[in-house]
Amino acid sequence: ESWPRLAGLDADYMAKQLHDIKEGSREAPTMMPFVNMLDDQQIADVSAYYSQLPATQGDGGDVDEAVLARGEQLALRGDWDEYIVSCKSCHGPGNQGVGSTFPGIAGQHAGYIENQLRAWQEGRRANDPQNLMGAIAQRMSDEDITAVAAWLATQPATDE
Ligand code: HEC
């Protein structure tokens, strides 16, 4: 699953992403033709619509316990030897998101999380405030990316 779950995402966060795709700081070739048709009001409307849908659960795929344990470590505690701050320190308790700046990533599809981290590594996505995500993605190995994505996908998207 390399498509994101949109239901339950913060409306302002989603609107920012759509504007970023339109302006090119977030590359999303499959989204481009659609986003280009939307004006500001339609972006606000479609974002509001998705934000009100109940969040659905992502799919972590088939990975073994050791990989999940590494993913959990990165997500909740980080890895100081690698200068990787825990995901939770920005994405909030349960990695369920904080306000409109830090999106919920728990319960997101593993393939989508992986793709985003690689996009930051490769400079295809450069729309995050102060390059916060770019800096983290740079420090992550392929194995770490797979592990954290798989573990996050198994976590509940909301407390409700
Ligand atoms: C220093 C703060 C910070 C830390 C730590 C952090 N993130 Fe982020 N993350 C952000 C911000 C800010 C955004 C929103 C970027 C934007 O506006 O496009 C984001 C966005 C994301 C997204 C995109 C979600 C979407 O739907 O667009 C993913 C995936 C992600 N982060 C994964 C992670 C993972 C995995 C970790 C831990 C290894 C992590 N982040 C740690 C700040 C952080």
TrEMBL record:
Heme c 2 binds at C87, C90, H91, M133. It comes from the Bacteria. Binds 2 heme c groups covalently per subunit. Residues 66-156 form the Cytochrome c domain. The keyword Transferase does not apply. The keyword Electron transport does not apply. Heme c 1 binds at M31. One of its GO terms (molecular function) is heme binding. One of its GO terms (cellular component) is periplasmic space. PANTHER family: BLL4483 PROTEIN (PTHR33751:SF11), CBB3-TYPE CYTOCHROME C OXIDASE SUBUNIT FIXP (PTHR33751). It comes from Rossellomorea vietnamensis. Keywords: Heme, Iron, Metal-binding. This is Cytochrome C. SUPFAM superfamilies: Cytochrome c.
